[in-house]
Amino acid sequence: MKEKKGLGEIGRREERREGREKRRIVMVMMFVMVMGCNSGGVKEGEGESSQSKFLKSIIGLRNEFLNVFTSFGDMVGGILGFNAVKSDDKRSKVGEHFKTIGDGLKNTKDKLDELSKQIVSTSNADIKGVEAVIQVTSEVIAKLITSVTELAGITKEGNVDIGDAGTAGNAAAVAADKASVEAIIKGVKEIVETAEKSGVKIEKGNAGNSVANDSGPKAVVHNARAGAGDATKLAGEVAKADPWAMIDKIKNAKTKTTAPAAGDDAGQLATASAAAANDNGTASTN
């Protein structure tokens, strides 16, 4: 019995010893992990100071990230919104809108470049992943700047209006410049594609109903004589359009040099040939 009791005591002592060894191993591992948080090592007497500086740097960079990407989100929303331009504004207003957006994007890109410099100069920070995000975002913004700048140039004062009317009474609309229309379509398409690649979901929206020639398209089709109130009718039809659908329609619009026909999109109506001397041309949707 004494022998069994002695063996039991030895077993308990072994368990206690193993428990102490495990606790030591855990403590060592925790110490290594804490030290590993400061990748440059902690000098004696400087541990709190180094960690404090590191944490302050991370907090500062986080705030800069929030500022930059909030601004970036606002810029993309502004490009696709068109809320700043009303139906009765001059065409120059559209150009001003795109210029404002372009300036905002450039400002955002400048902030992003400055943020990149701050991250590189931050000690004790793993910057590889952050640099990759900044580079991709900077490239996206650069593409948007190019597209918006082109759109601002096309829509500035002095260029031919899309669907502008002649000066004579009851005049036919002036033919839209085909190259300008194509450039607008290309610019909007690039903006949409860039936004989609950046994770922004672009809805197709509700396409709406077809529109008869005398309900608005006559003010766009330049072989048709615009009558009294046609411009107002056109503005009314545009106002009915789903904003998401409008973006999708511009992105997928085409141009043509043949006579306008039933079911044409806005680009085709604006650039079609004036050879057919009748009121051809109906919009596929409003």
Automatic annotation (TrEMBL):
Hydrolase recorded as keyword: no
Subcellular location: Cell outer membrane
UniProt-annotated stretches for the region Disordered: 254-286
Residue ranges, compositional bias (Low complexity): 255-286
Predominant subcellular localization, coarse grouping: membrane
Gene Ontology cellular component annotations, sorted alphabetically: cell outer membrane
Membrane topology: Lipid-anchor
Protein purpose: The Vlp and Vsp proteins are antigenically distinct proteins, only one vlp or vsp gene is transcriptionally active at any one time. Switching between these genes is a mechanism of host immune response evasion.
Protein name: Variable large protein
Organism annotation: Borrelia crocidurae DOU
